[in-house]
Design a protein that fits this description.
alpha+beta; 4 helices
Length: about 180
């Protein structure tokens, strides 16, 4: 497995449809926030619209597309311990904030997401292409994205120093390189 990452200018409809089909169950189970009254077609269109914002990225396993994602650089991200402004404030600077992603299956599963190859490719891309100091993902607590990335951290395959801001229904997962 060789994972590559590149910035793209536009989404390919065939790749989008394939990755979306592999992600629809995870998205429907709460890995992504949708307006409450959206039907299946509206959710798909919403996801495509979100992916077309900011910096668009394509991950591949060899030549097979495995992720469409997008995000932007945040100059500062800060939070107070336990959400209490009278407690310690933690501040991070120059992070890449991943905002939307759809992930494909490889050999019928998404186990590749929990590999050192994936996290190394992501770090190398972010540092070399965007000169950031780390990355940030905000995800719904207890849903597949959060569970997978927390397990990857527990397995020791993630790059950088890990922090988490657990606030309400969201876990903000932060890695500084």
């Amino acid at each position: 497995m060789t994972i590559t990452v590149e910035t793209i200018s536009e989404l390919d409809d065939d790749i989008f449809n394939s990755l979306y089909a592999d992600s629809v169950d995870d998205l429907g189970a709460g890995s992504m926030w949708f307006p409450d009254d959206y039907n299946a077609d509206e959710k798909k269109a919403y996801t495509k619209t979100k992916l077309n914002e900011d910096i668009k990225v394509l991950f591949k396993d060899d030549t097979t597309p495995i992720i469409y994602a997008n995000g932007h650089i945040v100059s500062e991200y800060a939070y107070y311990l336990d959400g209490d402004y009278t407690k310690e404030k933690t501040t991070y600077t120059n992070l890449f904030y991943w905002t939307t992603a759809i992930m494909g299956n490889v050999d019928g599963n998404k186990n590749w997401v929990r590999t050192a190859e994936f996290f190394t490719a992501m770090k190398n891309y972010l540092v070399s292409q965007h000169s950031v100091d780390g990355m940030l993902i905000e995800a719904n607590k207890g849903k597949s994205l959060t569970v997978s990335f927390k397990q990857s951290q527990a397995n020791g395959v993630c790059q950088g120093t890990y922090s988490i801001n657990s606030d309400g229904e969201t876990d903000s997962l932060i890695w500084v390189y």
